Amino acid sequence: MTAVTDQDHTDNDHMDDDPTDNDQTDNDRTDSDRTDDDRKNGRDGRDSRDSGDSTRGKSGGPGTGGSPEAAEQAQAQARDRAGAEGGDTAEQPAETAAKVPVRDSAKEPRAQEAAVHARVPDADGVTAPRAAPGTGPHAPTRRERRSEAGTPPGAGPGAEADGGEEGADSAEAWDDGLIARRVSEASAAEQAAVMETRVGGGGGSALPSTPLTYDAPLRSRLDALRELVGLSRTRLDSRTLAEAGRVLDEAAARRRLSGQHTVVAIAGATGSGKSQLFNALAGVNISETGVRRPTTSAPIACTWSDGASTLVDRLGIPGRLRRRPVQSQDAEAQLRGLVLIDLPDHDSAAVQHREQVDRVLALVDAVIWVVDPEKYADAILHERYLRPMAGHAEIMFIVLNQVDRLPGEAAELVLDDLRRLLDEDGVALGEYGEPGATVLALSALTGDGIGELREVLGQFVTERGAAARRIAADVDAAAWRLRPVYATGRRTGLSEEARDEFADRLADAVGATAAGEAAERAWLRNAGRACGTPWLRLWRWHQDRRDPPTGRLPVRAPADEEATARQRVEQAVRTVSERASAGLPMPWAQAVREAAVRGAQGLPEALDQLATRAGLPPGRPPRPGWWPVAVLAQACMTLLQVVGGLWLLGQIVGVMAPNLGVPVLLMVMGIIGGPLVEWSCRLAARGPARRYGQDAERRLREAAAGCGRARVLDPVAAELLRYREVREQYGRVTGVGAAAR
Fold first, then answer.
1. Cβ–Cβ under 8 Å, residues 331 and 450
2. Whole-prediction pTM value?
């Protein structure tokens, strides 16, 4: 009994000590001192147990329930609590553990602050592991651990044995311990709700994990963008299509995740108060704040409802950096479905911090940009983020923080200047009912304006349309970046005039005109031979056999003709490719020119073969219907000449009676009639000869045009058709459809 009473006095004396002194005293104790105290406490416990057993055999004291079963139950609970604390505390009897002094409630805030920062990451983004209870340079003493466990003093058998006056003296200590225990339990429960709860688990209202759905226009735009990328993959480099591919991937990934949650990131420059605003919205200090820069080294997530774990996993935020708010039910219901992300500084000196900001900003549904009166016009913020994201104005909030530092009407002046800068950046402002960015002024330190931001955020989250608007804005941004390679203000294509000119150039290269003229001359020559007088034909035959051909055009060497034809073909291909690619964006113009050059390879040789096959048809040229009549008339004229000559010769010889009139008349008729018939035939042959030459030229032109069309124009037309298809798909992506053509 005496040992128990001494131990109680000793514990009560320690209760008045400062916690820091107690911690230091316990930490300075050696292992031998701990062992001696343990042995002493063991002996005191055994004495107390013996005294308690004798007392329980009688009537219960003031501090007991009056029954042995209640006392045994209290002992068992005390032993369980001591055993859960581990270490040497578990080895102590329940009676010794029950006589722990009550901590002063004024010392609770220090322990609460330590509990709050127990899981806050360090500057490098890694949470340092905390020492186990009872270890470390500032570990709590065994008495403080027992007090934190909530063991009420005087609840053990020692209190029963004291009875009477001693029980009355402990009543005040019991009341103080009860109050301190309740405060400690409430603080521990509050901190546990913030620090230990993970996203998607624990308490809180759970939203149905319904996948995100896009409306029909957005689905059509995404399909068009996918088709656009497919058609352009072989024409454009991968870097040009990288942004469009990323948008398609992110749209598909976001569509598979919850559509009932809205992921909103808080971004800003160093010292703008992002973490302070984050904590103000959450209702508890989650993100560390301070003057050290950078303070936030890794993204921290806070969710107002369950079912958002996959969304946070997509952002790459580990479980140790996921929190839950501590707010009233009405406050939580206002932001139900919100996933708030606190980002590092976008202008941090640490490269990995800026990379994390850029990575998360590309994945969240909306952004709250926090600026302060000193850096709201920072060039990095406007040139690197706000200006490129001007098309995302509907999912942006621009918050001017720290307005409590501005005197008088300075806050309105700074806010007006901020609006002016946003307008210069091309960011549409959501004023007067127009869609755009929301601009607010608040103070996260004093709480001024936080309610308005919560109301705006609550309405924004309730609409459940931020994710779709983000994807639509990403599609708009991708389409704008692709505009130089798809859109053009000029009419494109190959006109019929250009096609005809190309065919004419190929016909000139193959010599279609000369071939037609040659065919015409050949037809006239054949007509002259068939319808001419026999004497003239005989003389011409004799001249051809005796003298070489003279007076004709010099025959050109085959090499010279081939070089000339090749130059003409190359010039024709170059001209048609330039006309076809005129007005096209650079990648497609280059594709058209390359298609034309590929088709021009081997074209001169193919045209030579066509000239050989399609120049002059084999065999005799066709003859008109009057041709036999002319031949018969020429034969008659020749016969008259022969008859008249023979008759005149017979008169000269004397065989026939002299009569010069008739034979001379016959000879004159034959001599004059023969050339007259030949001249008439030549006149009549000009028309058919010209038509024959034109037919030969037309056949050669058609053959050359067909060869050029198959080798050059068709590949060029295919490239132009592909461009028209991608232009149509681009029009669907931009939302203007056929009007974009």
1. no
2. 0.60
Query: Residues 6 or more apart from 559 whose CB is under 8 A from it?
Result: none
- List pLDDT tens digits, range 217-233: 999 999 999 999 998 98
Residue type, 131: A
The three-state DSSP-derived secondary structure of 283-307 is: CCCCCCCCCCCCCCCCCEEEECCEC
pLDDT at residue 495 is higher than 50: yes
- Do residues 456 and 533 both lie within one domain? no
Q: How confident is the model at residue 656 (pLDDT cuts 50, 70, 90)?
A: confident
Mean pLDDT computed over every residue of the chain: 73
Phi-psi map region of 464: left, alpha, beta (phi>0 left; psi -120 to 50 alpha): left
Q: Establish if 549 belongs to a structural domain.
A: no
In angstroms, rounded to a whole number, what is the distance separating the alpha carbons of residues 553 and 102? 129
Angle at Cα 180 formed by Cα 176 and Cα 185, nearest 5°? 150
Residue with tokens 């109301």: 455
Tens digit of each residue's pLDDT (9 = 90 or more) over 150-192: 433 333 333 333 433 333 333 333 333 333 333 334 444 444 4
- Looking at the structure of the chain, the number of domains it has is 3
Confidence grade of residue 316 (pLDDT, cut at 50, 70, 90): very high
Residues 500 and 622 occupy one common structural domain: yes
The whole-angstrom separation of Cα 369 and Cα 442 is: 13
Question: CA 313, CA 565: separation in Å to the nearest integer?
Answer: 68
Residue by residue, DSSP assigns 607-674 as: HHHHHHHHSS-SSPPP--TTHHHHHHHHHHHHHHHHHHHHHHHHHHHTSS----HHHHHHHHHHHHHH
**In a domain? residue 118:** yes
d(CA 287, CA 618): 96
Expressed as residue numbers, the domain containing 714 is 496-544+558-740
- Sign of torsion over alpha carbons 630, 636, 640, 641: positive
Q: Do 289 and 177 have their domain in common?
A: no
Joined tokens for residue 64: 């007991």
CA-wise closest residue to 405 among 418, 396, 414: 414
- Does residue 199 or residue 252 have the better pLDDT? 252
